[in-house]
Structure formats: C-alpha cells, structure tokens
Amino acid sequence: MPGNSLPAAVELVRFLPETILVLLGTLIMVLEAVTGDRPKTFLGHLAAAGLGLAACAAVYAHSSPGEAFSGMLVVDGFTTFFRLLVYAVGILTVLSSCQFLTRERANTGEFYALVVFSVAGQSVMVASHELIMIFIGLEISSIATYVLAGFLRDDPRATESAVKYFLLGSFATAFVLYGIAWIYGATGSTELTAIRAAVDTQAGREGAMLAAVAAALMFVGLGFKVSGAPFQMWAPDVYQGAPSPVSAFLSAGPKAAAFAVFLRVFETAFGSIGPLWEPLFWISALLSMTIGNFAALVQGNVKRMLAYSSIAHAGYILVALTARSEVGTAAVMFYLAAYALMNVGAFALLGHLTRKGERFQKVEDLAGLGSAQPLAAALFSIFLLSLIGVPLTAGFFGKFYIFKAALDSGLVWLTVLGLLNSAVGAYYYLRVLVVMYMREASEEVPPVEALSGGLRAALLACSAGTLALGIFPGPVLDFVNRSATLIR
Amino acid sequence: MTDTVLFYVFALLVLGGGVLTITRKSAVHSAIYLIISLIGVGGLYLLQQAEFLFAVQIILYVGGVMLLFLFVIMLVNLEQAATERQFNKQWWIALACVLAVGAELAYVLYRGAAAFQFARPSETPPAPGMGNTEILAQVLFSEYLLPFEVASVLLLVAVVGSVIMAKKRI
Predict the structure, then answer these.
(1) CA-CA distance, B51 to B131, in Å (whole number)?
(2) Residues of A in contact with B145 (CB under 8 A)
(3) Each residue of A388-431: pLDDT tens digit?
(4) Cβ–Cβ under 8 Å, residues A353 and A376
(5) Does B142 touch chain A (CB under 8 A)?
(6) Which one of A159, A201, B13, B158 is least enclosed by Cβ atoms within 10 Å?
(7) Would you state the torsion angle of the CA atoms of residues A186, A189, A193, A194, taken in this order, to the nearest 10 degrees?
C-alpha cells in the first residue's frame, strides 16, 4: 500500500544473510576484474569468510523469528538449520577447490562468485514460504550450478556434463513451474498457508485431485533436483563429468535445498492430502535405493560409484519423507547434515586423489594409498565408513533415525527393503577400502601430492563433523527435533 | 460467444505454433512459428483484460527476444544441423507418454474442476481509474516486492554464467 512501502528493519534482518551473499558475489566479481593476473586463491578465502559472515547473520536473524515481506519469507528453526547447512557446504566447497583449480589452471574469481550466488539461491529456497520465491531461488541456484558443472571448458567430459545437466534441469524446472500454475489456478494463491487453507476444504473430495496433480508435477521437478529415481538418469554422467569439488557441491547443497522445499511444500501446503501423494514417495524411495545401490556395485570408476551412491542416499531420505511425521522431518534434517559432511568430504578428496586432469578415477588407481598417503587414506576411510553407516559415524545415526521414523509410521516393508539395501551398499564402499590398504601401488600411476592448505582444513572439518555427529549427536538432534515443526 | 471463439483461435495459434516449432527442420522456420505461438499467448492475455502483459508479451518476446533468436540463428552454422535427423528412434514412446499425460490431466480437470474452488475475481470492484496495469504495478511493488528484486539476482547470475561459457579465456 502507498505510504508504508519501506520494509521494517526487522524484515531486513530476516533477509540479511541473502543480502550479504549477493553483495559478496558481486564484490568477488569486481575484485576479480581489478586484480588482473595475480593468483586468485585469496578470493576463495574471501568467499569462505563471507559465507561465514552470512552464517553469523543467519544465527542473528534466528533471534527474531517470523515472517517478512508480506509472507514471502519465514525465519524459523527450519530455515535457520537449512541456511547454516547450505552455507557450510559452500564454505567446504570453496576451501577444497582452491588447490584443485590451481592444479587445473582455472583458478579464477568467477568460480567462487558462482558458488556464492548458487548458495544465495539455495538460501532463498529454504527461507521462502511462497512458490514464486521458491521458484526464483531454485533457478538462481540451478543456473549457477549448470555453469559450474562445465567450468573446465577444455575438458569434453565437463562440457557433456554441463549440457546434460542444463537440458534436463530446465525440463525439470518446467514441471515445477507447471505445478505452480496448477496450484495457483486451483486455489488462487501461491502462498503456502493460503494454499493449505484452500486444499484443506477439499481434502477427501474429488476436488483434491487438482491439488494432487499439482503435487505430482512439483514432485517430478524436485525429484529431479534430489536425483531420486525415476528422475536420476542425469546424476552419474553429471557427477562424473563435472570437476570433483563441483560434484561435491552438487551432491550436497542443491540437494539439501530441494529436500527443504519438498518438506516445506508437501508438509505445509499439501499436508491434508498426504495419502494421495504418499505412494509417489514410497515408489520413488524404493526405486532410488535399489537402482543406486545395485548400479554402484558394478562401477569400476570411483567417481561414478559415488554418484550412484548419492542416488541411493536420496532414496534413504525419501523413506523419511514417506513417513509424513515430525520425526520423519527431523530425520531428514539430521541425515542431510550428516550426508553433506561425508559426501562433500569424499568427493573433494577424490578430486585430489585423481591427480591432474582427473585422469585416474579407477578403483585400482587408489591402490597403495594407505602406505603412501596415510592421512588421505584415513580421511577417505572415515567418509566411506560413514556412507556405509558404521556406528560411531554420522551415517549410522542418520540411517537409524530414518528407519525409526519409517517404523513409527508403520512403513515396515519399506524399512526392511531399505535395510537390505544398505547391506548391499556396504560391499562397494568396502571394496575401495580393501584396494586402498591391501594392494600395492602400480608403477604407471604417478604419486599423489600431499594435502595442503584449504583442502586439508576442509577435509579435517568434514571428518571431524562426521565423527562428532556420530559420537555426540545430541545437540544437533535436539535442535532438529525442535525445528521440525513447520510454520503452517 | 465472441470471447469463446477468440479463445479457441488464440489457443490454436499457441498450440499449433508450438508443435510446428519443434517439428520444423529449419531453425529459421522454427523461430517464426515460435513467434506465432507467442502472439497467441499475447492474444490470450488480451482476452483476460491484461493489457499490460499483452504489451510486454508483444514488445519483449515477439519483438526483442525473438529478434535476438533470429540473429543468433543467422550467426551460427546451421548446415550441419539441417542434415541431421530430426527425430530419434524413441519418438513414438515420447508421443505415447505425451498422450497419456495429456489424457490424465484432461481427466482430472474434467472430474475435479466442478468440485474445486477456483480463484474468483475479487468481490469489491476496483477503484475508478484502476486498470489492470495500475493494479499490477501496485501488487508488484508492494506484496511482490521481494521476488521482483530477487529476480534481478537471477538475471545477474544468468549474464555472468553465459559470459563465462562464451569467453575465450577465463
């Protein structure tokens, strides 16, 4: 309305983290231009510091929870948790890519700026309470990641990865948009609370079919972003072709944000027609776990194996979504935090172990690492053991809470099949460990450089986090349980 | 009555133009059919009394975006594309999927539309002098201010990304 068009200070505080990120991205672009030919590693450190500042702002914003900008944004525990998670993924990504980019002669400021912009988009996604905002956030995040996937332009694999991701990603986004159009046509609103009110009046009647179609369309688009089957086709090719730090980022950041949107939209807006969309999640969870694990079994390429394993992990998270309960929501949040730490660590370290040009991606190329590079081998073991779900690692508690939530909701069969699947999964991770420690290095493969600087710090942080969540899950679990109540 | 007839005419332009866009072999022909499709969308806006969107649709999409499309098409080498096959072997599977999804959506609309509360135009008549354009402006700069501002970040990212992809040396 005219007269009060200026937003209140508290609203600006609630939007402060995103503001910082956008300014940071722009600043990095400007500094990149004015510093000429100087080495650009300091821009990576600047990006990490800025993301840390944004995390502080997110914590500060958490002290004044509520809506902002006429219901477009919501700051609650859920928002704060996911904001901090995507910022952490951003920090780990930029720290672990400095060395990688220098090695590949592509250490430029644009890389860091794109990571920061992508994180800003994910931050908008997780804080939004309105479908248009969610869509804009999703697009900011996606467009930046399309470019990041093809950042090493002279590498044909990276180019293939970028083109594939771009074409399929745009197609998937169109489904989200079509779903938004349906829900707007049916309820006259794009605000989640208003949609919920409209859908509630129709629950259990024929009119609910329209909302169910909208839910199904949005499921297609978001399912693509989290690489849940049957929309997982792109993931192995994209993760394998993209530069490893980017694969690390793709498998954690955008996925966490897309799962946050899943929870927000399906639990808030479509909560009352849950029985209609639950079968979708059931089938998708089972397919993702099975396809991911069994395809990973036969991979000789470690990077591709991790890509299939990330499909399987998306399946486990979808099991918790199928539970449709607050325990399930909390389990999703905890698992995403655990998964982000171990998977970013695994991919980032793999980028280092594959040597210059990422030429040595085979399982056998890791032979003898245990004696040549004890630290790198130990860190990789922690990440792989956590991905298996061995006790004392984050992955164990993550899986435990997911299957507990599923059992609480009576999903016995899905739980049994999920547990069988994680047993299958143990085989291919253990194979890598065996090769690393039990086999001699071959002569043709050049030795791995020592870990240094930012990469070392990022990997130590990932492994420390993985172990901390596995030994003392209490504090994070408390926070997650308190924030699993979404604002309706 | 006139409205209904006009609606079907414009809808035919949108859908026919869209189908021809993806089936023509020559990129220039495709672009021209896309223009026809976009003009059809503009017509649908006009039927809804959304004059501003109609003007934007014609000036930006038909005038600006499509002109750039045509320029780019003329700059890139199309001789190779023209000799390649337009459809791959799976096209009939795709057609079957499209028909199945279309039938499903049509069925749901048929069954559900009567029961569902569609968005109704607001009960209170707009204040005098408040056309579609004025209302749109007021909503855009008050309620939807944040998406409007954040969309500029989206454009910035797209520009930066395309420059990185196109630049000779990063």
Answers:
(1) 9
(2) 5, 7, 69
(3) 999 999 999 999 999 999 999 999 999 999 999 999 989 999 99
(4) yes
(5) yes
(6) A201
(7) -70
What is chain B's pLDDT, residue by residue, as a tens digit (170 residues)?
Answer: 888 899 999 999 999 999 999 888 888 888 899 999 999 999 999 998 888 999 999 999 888 888 888 888 888 766 766 677 767 778 889 899 999 999 998 988 888 776 655 555 555 555 666 778 888 888 888 889 899 999 999 999 999 999 888 876 65
The residue ranges of every structural domain in chain A are: 2-487
**Nearest residue on chain B to A132, judged by CA atoms?**
B147
DSSP one-letter string for A426-476: HHHHHHHHHHHHHSPPPSSSPPPPPP-HHHHHHHHHHHHHHHHHHH--HHH
The residue of chain A with its CA nearest to that of B119 is: A188
Alpha carbon of B22: minimum distance to chain A alpha carbons (Å): 15
Give the chain A residue nearest B168 (alpha carbons). A153
Q: How far is B170 from chain A (nearest CA, A)?
A: 7
When computed from its CA atoms, the radius of gyration of chain B, rounded to whole angstroms, is 21
> B11-14 long-range contacts, Cβ below 8 Å, gap at least 24?
B11/B40, B11/B44, B12/B40, B13/B37, B13/B39, B13/B40, B13/B43, B14/B40, B14/B41, B14/B44
Q: Are A225 and A255 in contact (CB under 8 A)?
A: yes
- Give the span between the Cα atoms of A128 and A67, in whole angstroms: 10
Closest C-alpha among B137, B136, B149 to residue A7: B149
Question: Looking at the domain B1-84, which fold is it?
Answer: Four Helix Bundle (Hemerythrin (Met), subunit A) (1.20.120)
Prior bond to B121 cis, omega within 30?
no
The DSSP annotation for B60-121 comes to IIIIIIHHHHHHHHHHS--HHHHHS-SS-TTHHHHHHHHHHHHHHHHHHHHHHTTTS-----
Residue B16 contacts residue B38 (beta carbons within 8 Å): no
Judged by CB atoms closer than 8 Å, whether chains meet at A210 and B112 is answered as yes
B117 with A198: Cβ contact below 8 A: yes
Domain locations along chain B:
1-84, 129-170
Apex A179 CA angle, A143 and A78, nearest 5:
70
Q: Which amino acid is at A48?
A: A
CA distance A232 to A434: 29
Grouping H, G, I as helix, E, B as strand and the rest as coil, residue A342 is helix
Q: Please say whether the dihedral angle defined by the alpha carbons of residues B126, B129, B132 and B133, taken in this order, is positive or negative.
A: negative
Q: What predicted TM-score, i.e. pTM, was given to this entire model? A: 0.93
CB atoms A130 and B147 under 8 Å:
yes
Which B positions 74-113 lie with beta carbon below 8 A of chain A?
104-105, 108-109, 111-113
Residue A362: beta bridge partners? A301
Check if B120 contacts A (Cβ < 8 Å): yes
- The answer to whether B117 contacts A201, with C-beta atoms less than 8 Å apart, is yes
Judge contact between A286 and A151, C-beta under 8 A: no
CA closest to A204 among chain B residues:
B115
Q: Is the complex ipTM higher than 0.85?
A: yes
Q: Which residue of B has its CA nearest to A131?
A: B147
B150/A133 touch (CB, cutoff 8 Å), yes or no: yes
pLDDT digits (tens, 9 = 90+) for A227-268: 998 899 999 999 999 999 999 999 999 999 999 999 999 988
Lookup result for tokens 């860091």? A112
Give A-chain residues touching B109 at CB under 8 angstroms. Answer: 210
